[in-house]
Structure formats: C-alpha cells, structure tokens
Amino acid sequence: MEIYKKFEELRLVPVVVIENIDNAIPLAKTLLDVNLPIIEITFRTDVAARCISLIKKNFPEMVIGAGTVLKIEQVKAAMNAGSMFIVTPGFNPTIINYCVENRIPIIPGLNIPTFIEWGLEKGLTHFKFYPADISGGTKMLKILSGPYPKAKFMPTGGINNESLLKYLKLKNVFACGGSWIVKKELISTKNFDEIKHRVNKALSLIKSNLS
Ligand code: 3PG
C-alpha cells in the first residue's frame, strides 16, 4: 500500500497525545515547518478524532493516522475524521479483522513471533514492534529477520536519539515511532520551539548518517 511507502520515506513518526484541541493546528504546523509531514494522534484523549479532522481539513498534505486504537468505534471515528492509517499497541484480532475486511491500513503492535505469524497469515506485512526497547530492541529485530523476511517493523517505545539510528539501520525496520520528539508536556505547554528543535535534531541525525 502507498501509505507504507510514505513511512519508509519519512522514517520518523511522531506519536502524540493532544489534550487540548487548540494545540492541534499549531502542532501540525510545527511538524510541517520542519519537513516532517506525518503524525500519529493517539486515542488517549477524547479529542483525538476531532484533532484528526481539524488537521486533515487545514493541512491535507499531512500524512495523518490514529494510534493507541483499542476499539472498533475508535477505528470508525478515526477513519470518519480522515485518518489514513490505524496503529494499535497490541495484536487485537477484532480490530485487525475489521481493518483487513474494510481495506484500512493497519499497523498492529506485537513483540513475539506468534503474532507475526498470525499477522502474515492475514496478509499483513507491516507491524509496530512495541514496546521496542524492553522487548529485545535491535537484537530481537535482527533475530526476527531470519524466520520472517517479509515482516517489516516500526519499533516504538523507549526510542530516543541515542537508539534511533541503530533501529533505522536494520533492513526490516521501515520507520521508528516515538514521543520523545513531541512529549505530551511540550504540547500542553505550547512549547512548539522545543518540538521544532527536537524534530530537527532527529531528522539531521537521520540525514547525516543514513542517506
Ligand atoms: C506509543 O503509544 O506508541 C508509545 O507510547 C510511544 O512510546 P514512547 O512514548 O516510549 O516513545
């Protein structure tokens, strides 16, 4: 699917928690200003769907999706709001089946071989490796490339500037997700300059070491 190409191209996915809807537009603008036109808005707050819809309307060029999706109602709300992809923390068969049946791009979370096999059987190839850091990190991903050459991962959970490149250098990693560049507190205190600074730093690390 086209959407996965976007992830491969951009490599870094900011996972955000927006508590106040007024922060949605300035946050999206901040990310666009630093050339990171992608955002995963988590359903950890009640305003998630409204934030997706607002950003979609104002910045149609943004690659926008929903994270921490735990229920089918949230999938529906996210897609109605204009979400382009769904990310789940765990391997939830009910949500996965619904997305596969409705041709909704889904990146389900997992950290064990069993779920990779279940995912591959459903025709999925792109997974969120979560929580990456404490699930064996790059060592585990290298091992998983042996039996599952078709599986690609987006490690998320505990990633920072120190570990980012180690993950992105792996052939079976298509992008890295994380909140360290867009911490919840930075959004709620409207510290968009610091977000800009953090994204720039991560992007320049990628640019100078991986391209
Ligand atoms: C997620 O929902 O994907 C994680 O909370 C992001 O993990 P991080 O906060 O450790 O980056």
**Helix run count:** 10
Average pLDDT over all residues: 97
As a percent range, the share of helical residues equals 40-55%
Largest sheet: 4 strands, parallel
The rounded Rg comes to: 16 Å
Write the CATH homologous superfamily. Aldolase class I
Question: Which class do the helix and strand fractions yield?
Answer: alpha/beta
Q: Please state roughly what percent of the residues sit in beta strands, choosing from under 5%, 5-15%, 15-25%, 25-35%, 35-45% or over 45%.
A: 15-25%
CATH architecture: Alpha-Beta Barrel
CATH class: Alpha Beta
Oligomeric state of shown chains: single chain
Tell me the domain tally: 1
- N-to-C SSE string, H for helix and E for strand: HEHEHEHEHEHEHEHEHH
E-strand count: 8
Q: What is the CATH T-level topology?
A: TIM Barrel
- Order of strands, main sheet, comes to 3-2-1-8
Q: How far apart are the first and last residues' alpha carbons, in Å?
A: 23 Å
Give the low-pLDDT segments: none
The ligands found in this model are: 3-phosphoglyceric acid
